[in-house]
Every structure is written in structure tokens, then in C-alpha cells.
Amino acid sequence: MGDWLRLYGPPLLGWALLFSLLPHAYLRPPDLARRMLAEILLTVTVSLTVLTPAVYSAIGQYTGVPNLARLLGHASMLTATWSAQTLLRLLSAPTSRLTTRQRYAHLWVLVPAFVILGVLFALAPTPVDDVRFAGRYAGAPWVFEYWIVYLAFLTPAFSNLVRFASRYARLAVNSTLRLGLRLAAIGAVCGLAYHVHKAFVFGTARFGFPYLPKAESHVLDAVLPLAGHVLFLAGATMPTWGPLLGLPVLLDWFQRYHTYLALRPLWLALYRASPQIALTPPASAPADLLTVRDLGLRLYRRVIEIRDGRMTLQPYFDPEAAAAARAAAVRAGMSGQRLEAVVEAATLAAALRAKARGAAAVAHPPATPIPGGGDLNSDIAFLLDVARAYRHGRPRVSVSRPTSAAGAGR
Fold it and tell me: Above 50 in pLDDT, residue 407?
């Protein structure tokens, strides 16, 4: 049963997801991106289907060409990966517009790939149709060369797929799309790792250099392609089926939960310096972990209280500390929001230390712009960066005002 699920599960999942995507791609107003995604899903599913034992044997029997299914499956996988990276490259470019001509720009790579692979396939002596191709023909002439060429054409497509999926995930506002892209990227990494692993298997059989023991190699053969196919198929289609299962609501809840906990160290430090900022005293860390209700209100309160805590520290802000933090961050290559967040974290940390050791407060601190976002969501994103920088403590700066036991000027 386990082998059956491993061999037939991914293609069945692919066909099910493909049929669920078709109405969104063809029966609604034209959507070129969705149509291209459907074509990608079709080629991946065809690749998985022809390599199942039943279909593999049927293709060899009815065509009379042993192991032809292997070549067809690889051609379909090449088409899918190059089409996927082309789609993501176009979507991740902010000013690009997807056209029919751009959809097939990768054909100039695929045509020579198909020709070279076809020639090597014809040269390789593989007279017996066998779905366990590597076990029978790993050491045969031209098989290793065939796989190296296949890997050479796959690698740039897989690499670009991972790169563009990761980039587009950072830009995506929709939580379902963001998670789907990340899962697809992880699936592509698993797929590339599997193909590199098989290159070593063929190389070992051909040239005799040491590699993994057979037991460990078989584990990789079973796990890597299964994980890669399932993650890629699920991730690529998640924006279609995710909302039907309520996934956006669940992802938004997890995002609020993660943000609420991630802000705790910064909020707790500000509370200890100025307890009056909190509506209620802080719960223990385990109790915070178990907080699952009213997260929207709790997160809102935490943001407000962090801002209130910042205001209470303004008399201890040191412009020299902020300038030193900015200079250190610039030297480290930071810019934009990350730079401002690091400066803010270092300034707050220096002010907290100054207040804790009894430094003299400035009676009338000069008004300075408050860094952050223009609305609640962007401000939360900024404070998350501040909290991360504060937790890591970089760059660390100090204020050097004289101490005052009485807290002069408060």
C-alpha cells in the first residue's frame, strides 16, 4: 500500500488539482497567468503519470520502444520547470505584462534539450522496458551522459524557480499565495536534490567512485521525489483550493499569533522600564504561548503599549547613540526599513540602559520624527523588524550621560 501511494499518489493528486484549476483558467474571463499555470500543472502531471509502472509498461508495449516513457517523462518535466520559472520571472517583475509570446520564450532552450536527450536516449543500450530504470541500466553506456545533460538543463530552471518564487513570496500580500510560493520553492529544492543524487548514483555505477550505501540511497529515492512533487503541486495551486478550506483565515491567525509572540521581548523590556504603559501586567511566557483568543485586540494593545513605552523613554534618547547606530548599520550594508529598524532598536536599548542606571533625563527633549509605518499593518511590520534587531542586539551603542540618583530633570 505504501509503495502504491508513493508511485500513484502524486499523479492522482496532480490530476485532481488540475481539474480543480481548469474552471479558474478557462471558464471565467481570460486569465493568461492561470492558463499558463494550468499548462504547467498538466506537464508535471503527465510526467508523473507516464513514469507510473502501469503507464510506463503500456507505453513501451504499444510503441515498441523500450523505456520511451522515461524520455517522455523527462521532456514533460523539463517543459514544466522552464514554464514555471518563466511564469514566476514575469510575475515577479513589477512592470511586466504577460503576453502569449512571453509564455513560450523558453522554447529556445527546450528544443535543443529535447534533441540532445533524444540522441543520447537512442545511443544508450536499454533494450528491456523496465520502470526500475536506474537499477537495470545505471552503469550502461550513455546513460550517465544522458542524465548529466538532463540535469544541466533542469538546474537553471529549478534554480530560477526557487529564486523567483522566494522573491514573489516576499512581495505577495495574499497569505495563501505567499505560503503556496514558498511550498513550491521547497518542492523545487527537493526535486533538484533528487536529480543531483541520481547523477551520483549513475556516476557511481559507471565509474565506481564511492557514494551512499544502497539503503540510504533508496531512502532518498523514495523521499525526495515524493516530497518535491507533493509540495510543488500543492503550493502551485494553493491560491485556488486554499480559500475553499478556510486557509487564509487560519494563516492570518498564525501570523497574528507569531507577531504577538515576536513583539514580547521588546514590549517586556519597555514595560519593565515603565510599568504604567500596560493595561494589564504581563503574563508568564508559557501563558503567552497559550494565548489563542482575542489575538487581534491583544496584538493591537501590544503595539500601542510599545509606542507608549517609546514615548516614556524620549527623555533618555541620545542623538549620538542614534548616529553611531546608523553609521554602524550603513557600514554593514543596511538600508531602507531595515536600517531604520536597527537604528530604532539600538536607540531604545541605549535609552533603556541609561534609565536603568539612573542617567539624568532631559527635561524637554527635542521633538523628533517617530519612525514606523503609515497604518497599523505597516507599523506592525516595522516593529517586528525593531523587535528582531533588539533581540539580536546589533549594533550595540551606549549613552554617556552622567548618572543622577534622584533622576534630575524628570
Answer: no
